[in-house]
Fold each of these.
Amino acid sequence: MQWEAVIGLEVHVQLATQSKIFSGSSIAFGAEPNTQANVIDLGMPGVLPVLNEKAVEMAIKFGLAVHAEIPERSVFERKNYFYPDLPKGYQTSQMAEPIVGLGYLDIPLEDGGIKRVRIHHAHLEEDAGKSLHEDFHGMTGVDLNRAGTPLLEIVSEPDMNSAREAVAYLKAIHAIVTYLGISDGNMAEGSLRCDANVSVRPKGQEKLGTRCEIKNVNSFRFVEKAINHEIQRQIELIEDGGRVIQQTRLYDPDLDETRAMRSKEEANDYRYFPCPDLLPVELDEAYIQHLKETLPELPEQKRQRFTEQLGLSAYDAGVLSSSRALAEYFDRVVELSGDAKLAANWVTGELSAQLNREGIEIEQAPVAPEQLAGLLKRLQDDTINGKAAKQVFAALWAGEGHTADEIIEAKGLKQVTDTGAIEAVIDEVLAANPAQVEQYRAAEPEKRGKMVGFFVGQVMKASKGTANPQAVNQLLAKKLEG
Amino acid sequence: MTINAEDLHKVAHLARLSIEPEATERYTQALSSILSLVDEMQAVPTDGVQPMAHPMDATQRLRIDEVTETNQRETLQRLAPATEKGLYLVPRVVE
């Protein structure tokens, strides 16, 4: 039987405000426990929450970026459940009238294609505190610094059919929120968290299978692994004559498996009702229009510009637009060097490889766009060849000089195009290797192509990599003929 | 609409309230009579009426995003029965 997976994601994005969603407490990461939790965050009697305007603005910006409807009115509700890290006994959230309505996102896939994923809605809510289950004499420790931190929960439609698509969607959300500057998107610190709803059905069947929700998948890699594992588990279960039970499962990255969380009979009985402490939020058209005008160029638009105006491949455009910092770096190199394709090759090639090797982000790259552009200029005007360019790049990276020109000068990497000088080197090489020259001349013409490589290598070495490779090839061929 | 003892105990459990067995009868009757009132209201035609989210005819005022609070941990933790290393301690919760 051919199976099809159906996946929907709920993504929690921590908004990059200064203060909490309903109080003036700081949301800075890493503070001493409970030093950023005031009477409102603690749910003391008689306090009143007041909504943070920045949280509203950020949610709307996200909505505009995913082509969503922004309703004139939105309402906060109470989601009721008991847990020690939820001091009020309810989470202030939104249900019937969320701040962002139906929208969609076109995501680039690895094969260069585009997949449209609909976004059901996005709503504002507050985060809960943190429970620490280490040993406190058989008790649980509670840190409420995180309680009241503003979150935007983005709920997709079940439009994805593979773990890879789910990862691509999550990356697209990550790119949008960081482009907009509404979140730092730091998954390790929990700024972006993801729950996945996964079900399977026979290919071609309309009706959805029973789904399981996987919690706690907090890195791009784990999202892919957890979903793939869950799809496989469900298929094997059904093929063995079993039935999928609707449940919440927790992903364990150490064992690479999901396991059922405690069955929660009443867990879905949250008894939502409008929060009497908060009035309905009303937004006027002019305000939304104003925010629309402040939106930066978004990944989708960048991708389009890179392919249509700069002539890049869909793949390169996808990679370069995946983060705002990378796209801006690339744009700057293009602006200064005037050659988009060469810039794309270097940014996605040498530069990205070096970033990966050192495990750092583009923001920390020791080579500035101005320096890279300076290097590309010397490639364009044939001052250096490709091999020397890599040496110059490595030297820039290591901080051995400020500009490409400085390094080219210091290391003597200037390309030799003067035929006379190259001929002199070739003559030396041929004189030093008489046996190889004999062999070459005795060989069948079709075998000579391979043998010439030896001489090219020797000449390049003797010229310290500065000889123009085309010139070397041409002159060598002539001289070897004798 | 009336509710029975089972409904009552389910709702009480969700609200973490304990109800003495001898009070079950009294609470089911009281809650049923509130629900009858709701039934009566349900009969009113409300097509085209936007559900009321708040009794006041006003909209939410927004706060400027700035940190106005300082650390009050010491004062606030005086209210807690147990604390350690800055954490509030509660009976163990196991997932």
Note: The domain at 419-481 of chain A is CATH 1.10.10.410 (Arc Repressor Mutant, subunit A).
Amino acid sequence: MKTVIVRPERCVGCLQCRLACAVEHSESKSLVGALGESIPPKPRLRIYPGRLNYAFPNKCRHCDPAPCQQVCIAGAISREPTRGVIEIAPERCINCGMCAMACPFGVLVYAAVWQVPEKRAVALKCDQCPAREQAGRRPACVEACKVGALTYGDWQESQEEKGRALAQAVFSGLLAQPEVVPSMPETIRLWRQLA
Amino acid sequence: MRYVIIGTSAAGLTAAETVRQFDRQGELILISDEALRPYSRPMLTYLLGREAGLENIWLRPPSHFHKLNFKAMLGEPVAQVDPQAREVYLSGGRVVKYDRLLIASGAQPRMLGIPGETLAGVFTLRRLADWQKLEADLPAGATMAIVGAGPIGLKAAEALRRRGHRVILVEAEPRPLPRLLDDTAAKLLQEHLHGLGAELIVKARPAAISGHQGRVRSLALADGRELEVEGVLLAVGVRPRLEFLHGTPLAGNAPLTVNSFLQTQYPDIFAAGDCAEAPDLFSGKPVSYQIWPAAVAQGQVAGANMTGASRRYSGLLAQNSISLHGFKIVSGGILEPGPNLTEVWCRFDERQGVYRRLVFQEGCLVGVTLAGEVTDAGLYFQIMTQKLPVKDLPVDPRSPDFHPGKVWG
């Protein structure tokens, strides 16, 4: 399954992903159009100040098994069979707050959406941009990220790649020639002897 | 192997699906007295308030049973279970033999035992049939009394207000949701109840329901007050449905006490959900809270163990979430200060209407109440279920910095 992979160490906290996410989940799917919509679109990921106050992007991990799916009393949360993504059906959501109680990552927000304008609020979280994935494009947040903190791919492959990079760094460190300490020029040594 | 599961709601359905994960060949029989495919009982109050339609309450598509090769015996109540002969007798006369039995028969509304409970216009709300009866019998614009300001009572009050009824909530304790909230959170909730237009009478016990020509006309309280109402909805809790165990060694034990593997005293009989009493997460003593998340979690454990796994149930944690008119409350764990070194910490942001109350015991977080802002509720429950000592956490739960960034970053 391809997912959005987060590398918090690269995040600079520019929040462009949030803007792109909100635009992608607006009715018009354009920044200018989104500004004029009666129900303002909400981003589905948040950037928190993490440990040492480095930026920490937090979004749905699409867990398997998903605790939110198990506690949903409305049957609104399901796993999309082909994409493997956990999705919330806004027309079934009853805004009860059970999913927030179950989610260990605190990714859920409750707000109104244009799909169901009659509802005060529904549970929202990352749906990994279904329209974009269908069209073979990357999710909006990944496209917006300029520093490679959000990438799109298979997480196992990404982990292997990270492992290889680490191994390479370790080996290149071991193979490096020991640094030669510059010795004092002969003339200076002799001059000091004289003095 | 022949698996028999009594009950097709949260626990029974989850257990059946879990059994299928591990045993694709075994015969799996689901028994329910309701001739309906699995539906969500908590949705009934939303159905009553017309916030959801009938098409929204079904938990699984119609083809689900067929796809997973479940044999369903719906619409036939269980008359008797014989643990020695390993047989289940249905009231229609059929006998079902089992190798592993799961009792997930759930619970039914508790009645008050006061005069007049059989009158027309006295309702409960637990099954779809109860909702149908309410829809059929409830006069438009009638004044309704709801006895019990628990989760069901409150959600029913909201639903009936949406339908334009006058609603009077009657609660025996001094505050709504007495088992989940303290006074401050209850006060916040009361404000929202007031905003809904529902009246709340606390510290009041119903004494009798009186009627005229077989219909409810008033509800008399124990202190002498008389409420003029045209309908009474009883929401005073539930009791397990285990009548079919009558005459077996399991009888007289309601709710059914199970061990950490959700087995009863018969190793081939398991129990899960509202009818079972599983070990508490903190004390280990058998408890029953009748909550959806516990029923699903127990269904998973029982289903796996029925196929021969030895999965241990991590323990029951009281937890509930209720949303009233958009105002959310999440509460769980130990909420009453106990005698052994309990610390209670509260913070109330009056301006934003946000309340946090945390209960600590022996260096661990054991109880939490969040009102108004519940987004991070899952974090608290995560450290509670893992029993992580507060000093080992990256950030103190009392701190305003307690959010996913500091915990997971």
Note: Helices of chain A lie at 16-24, 31-35, 67-71, 98-102, 130-134, 140-144, 155-175, 186-194.
